[in-house]
Amino acid sequence: MIDVHCHLNFHAFEKDCDEVIKRAFEAGVTKIINVGTKIDSSQKAVELAKERENLYAIVGIHPHHADKLEKGWENQLERFAKDAKKVVAIGECGLDYYRYKSNDIVDPKLQKEVFIKQIELAYKLKLPLQIHNRQAGKDIIDILISHKSYLINPPGMFHCMSGDIAFLKKVLDLGFYVGFDGNVTYKGIAKGENIDLKKLVRFAPLDRIAVETDSPFLAPEPRRGERNVPEYVIIVGKYIADLKGIPFDKVDEETTKNANQIFKL
Ligand SMILES: [Zn+2]
Ligand SMILES: [Zn+2]
Question: Is the pLDDT confidence value at 64 over 80?
Fold first, then answer.
């Protein structure tokens, strides 16, 4: 099982990162992809990947940080990607229109500019995209359609999938894979969303699903509220198997194959 999206590059793992990685591999995780959200966390993700086997990095700017960039940030990301063979995608990039207490909403015009620059960079480097979307699905689809000639095959994945069935269909039609996290185990409908994530899991074909944790966030039940860790990706996989009524081994095998396909691991 491959955790295609986590943040061992974040402060929460400063003290015990190697122990957390070891435990994940012992539990049956085979590869871990750490994802940057700005320049310094992207650099940290690259460092972790360089020094360790079966660790990979994704470098990019999260829409939250679109208003805090210094000139030349695209060149820095490009340098990270060229300098390390283990950079497997550009992300997490995208749009986020959720009103956060700490961050509010970053100017959507700015978010779009930063997202488009990363689509162009991914194209230049022949890398897939790992997309972050929160309540901005329509604008993301519009941008992807208008930049269709910039998408490689496969074009990448939407991480921490949300939205409704119609949106999921559009994402799949564009050739993207979809990632599910521990929040699929939560009861009810998340704030600001209109359908239960479990419906998306049931609808999404297994040959287009990747599993992830978004550690340290979104720990699955019964660990909800705790610090999330990559080994819990197995809990997510088991939950998906139950939802779809198929054996866990099948989910393990297929999602691993999908991750290898998206990121050419
Ligand atoms: Zn995200
Ligand atoms: Zn994330």
Answer: yes
